[in-house]
Amino acid sequence: MKIICIGRNYAEHIKELSNERPKDPVVFIKPDSAVLPKEQDFYIPEFSEDIHYEVEVLIRIKKVGKHIDPKFAHKYYDEIGLGIDFTARDLQAALKEKGLPWEKAKGFDGAAVIGKWVPKTEFKDLKNLHFTLKKNDSVVQDGNTAQMLWPIDELIGYVSTFFTLKKGDVLFTGTPAGVGRVSPNDYLSGSLEGKELLRIKIK
User: Half-sphere exposure of 76 toward its Cβ, with a 13 Å CA cutoff?
Assistant: First the structure.
């Protein structure tokens, strides 16, 4: 299983981190060991003092595909989910400053939270999905897939140009504005179209 992540796919998130708007999707990968086990709390790693949450709409690939035409991409997934891309922001900033890869800041153990999966047939329009993340019952991120610079099917086409997609692979499609730091005893809960799909405690 691969976890393929898209960075800088929401304009307001690009602005809040003072990043440059990319010409193509920014792609990085998390190892499968980054997946937080179901029902487990997230423990802040000792190597970072600035762990940020980033809520994202997820896609689970259902069959092998390579060089997928975006107009056929819908045939390669049938489940939508919600997840959190945890980021060691202090470590990421230090790595970026030196022009080094981000893996240590993005792919550490527990850095990928995958919530419940929902059949895509339950949604009328995948290009207009509303999702939120709450921290301690207050909304901190409020996004819609309509805000994506590259929508889901375009991302699948783009990513499959470089990586063969396999059954069970998960695509993180990017995060909207509102990312922020977590602290011990915080609770995070994420909802997609009003349905809660994930809830975790920070320790």
Answer: 29
